[in-house]
Write a structure and sequence with these properties.
single chain; alpha+beta; binds zinc ion; HNH_nuc; HNH endonuclease; 4-stranded mixed beta sheet; HNH; two-stranded antiparallel sheet
Length: about 180
């Protein structure tokens, strides 16, 4: 194995490298997604991808079969056909599970962990089940807001709920298939 000269910036700690982000390119070199380094290494070890750019300073990762260095960018060797990606709009229908995934379970009013969703315009007043009208909401904020609009409840949204990136579903499918 090559011994390389360490240089600034610092390498990730041994137990945190798996959390660093790696850019994944399609075989055609188009950017597909960012994934965690442990998934990227799985792709490299399975022969599904190659390293395009190594992360600096070099950070060695050893497996039983081979040694490699932590990548910054990898490229899939087989072209992934993305197909038609249907547009998603703020007024498209959303499900609570989809909204929680979009908001990463962070409450839209206080940013703490949320397991439920809030209708920004209350359901009782015709608030629809759409990406633009649903936001992840913790139990405390949900109870405090009750059947009111944020203005009436004196609460402020931390971000404007939007439709998710239409690529997101395709990206999840790809990583389920390639690096489960
Ligand atoms: Zn909250």
């Amino acid at each position: 194995m090559l011994i390389r000269h360490a240089a600034v910036p610092t390498a990730p700690a041994a137990d945190t490298w798996i959390h660093s982000r790696v850019l994944v390119l399609n075989a055609s070199y188009e950017a597909l997604d960012e994934i965690t380094a442990d998934r990227a290494v799985t792709l490299l070890l399975s022969g599904a991808a190659e390293t395009v750019i190594e992360r600096l300073p070099h950070f060695p990762i050893r497996s039983q079969r081979l040694a490699l260095t932590l990548p910054e960018t990898i490229r899939l060797l087989r072209y992934v056909y993305l197909g038609h990606v249907a547009p998603v709009e703020a007024d498209s229908r959303a499900t609570p599970a989809g909204v929680l995934r979009r908001d990463k379970h962070r409450c839209g009013y206080c940013a703490s962990w949320a397991a439920t969703v809030d209708h920004i315009r209350p359901r009782s007043r015709g608030g629809p089940n759409t990406w633009g009208n649903l936001v992840a909401c913790c139990a405390v904020c949900n109870t405090a807001k009750a059947d009111r609009t944020p203005e009436e409840a004196g609460m402020r949204l931390l971000w404007e709920p939007k439709a998710p990136d239409p690529l997101a579903r395709t990206q999840r499918r790809i990583w389920k298939e390639y690096a489960p």
